[in-house]
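anyone seen this seq b4? input:
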Amino acid sequence: MDLISVIVPVYNVQKYLKQCIDSIINQTYKNLEIILVDDGSTDNCAEICDDYAKKDDRIKVIHQKNQGLSMARNNGLEIAKGKYIGFIDSDDYIELDMYQMLYNLKKKNQADVSVIGINRIYEDTGKKEKIEKNNYTKEIEKEEAFSIMVDDERTFRVAAWNKLYLKEVIENVRYPKQKLYEDVGTTYKIIDKAQKIVFCTCPKYNYRIREKSITKNKKFTQKEMDRVEMAIEMTNFIKSKYPNLKKQMDIYLLRNYIATLNKMILDDKEDKDFINETEKVFRKNQLNIVTSNLKTKKKVQFLLLSISSKLYAKILKKCK
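predicted toks r here
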């Protein structure tokens, strides 16, 4: 059995950490190197990691000063010895056969990257929701992979964590330092290096939706602009290499603009330059919006922003 290195960035998630680690150490696929990267946690995460390392010799622990999720992943990659690489976020957990399924998918299809489906777990209600209702497995080319990856209704996503990578395709790729939405700035580079990708919608990764996570924080800060920066880089790259995806990537970029703008408006922050830029980008894409397969409600929202950002902000605040 080939060695799989599983990298888990850890920061102030003591409430969820044991469930996460337990779901990894109890995998049906046993040949794992489990790298827990404590990113300067101020709760009991460091102690929890060390305790698990004493009980399971497959576990390695890195303790570092707080450098952010990107550097936690990068530092894990520096010491990873596996033929294959996987990532798990420490507030999530996985089904016990996830890595066996991802490994089998890779071997059967001789793929460089295998991708598995996702459940959403809502912290407030405990509800478990499967994102894609139909189970299927498909070998896909890069262009189709990108098309699926930027579709909100699918489970491929830009996320690092529901995938298994051949080490060679990720070896020279690193996550951007001190950036939010670092997956947006990275996953497309890995997929572009892959020769073959296999995608199974069967949900084996449990993604926890919690209000206090990094990207769910309701307070707007300038770091939220990282989302648009990363999305612009990704959009330009994919459009230049895969021109058939131009329209879809333009819509993807609009979704990132509007998500960032919504946070700004709802937190009563005023960045007039960004607001004007967003309005111009939406106005430029009016035809794309009208002819897209966005749901009607989204189309109306996007078109309203393209007409008047002031009116859009007023309505958004009233509807909040």
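Strands lie at 4-10, 32-39, 59-64, 84-87, 93-94, 113-122, 128-130, 137-140, 163-166, 197-209. Residues 218-319 form one domain. kinda curious what u guys think
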